[in-house]
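Title: Prediction job returns without error message
Component: structure pipeline
Severity: low
Priority: P3
Assignee: unassigned

Description:
Job completed but the reporter wants confirmation the result is attached to the right record. Sequence as submitted:
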Amino acid sequence: MNWLMLPLLATLLQAPPASPPSSGQPPALPTEGEALAQIRKAGDKMDLRFKLEIVQRDFGDKELEALVPALMALPNLQEVDLSRTAVTAKGLATLKPVKHLRLLFVIPELQRHAVAEELQKANPKLVLMANLPPPGARPPPVGLQPQRPPAPPPQR
């Protein structure tokens, strides 16, 4: 699915009913649970794939652990980007039960950590990719400094 379709999907989920309500009030937005149910139902009819990108520096292991049940409830979620968070190897290990993930972006140190191998044993289709933060981004927590890839050799 093209990620440009997500706003369209959100609009469809919030679209008013075919006949306007008799009270003249705008329809209420669906609750989080109703929205997830509608997405799951739509996913049964369409090939929907979702990506979750968390760009919150104070999002850490505890927050990821609390998010795992929601991740498991979204079988069409295939990509998660944790490269701009404070998630450590301990937090990454909580993703073992999320078997439908196909691509996980992390900082380079976590890609080379033993927990990455454990995750890939638990989910052989999972690919861990090192994602460097964009230029000017705040550095990750101490001890998890990203390393720039080596420059390619000059072409002759």
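Comment from assignee: result matches the submitted record. The beta strands are 50-53, 77-81, 103-106, 127-130.
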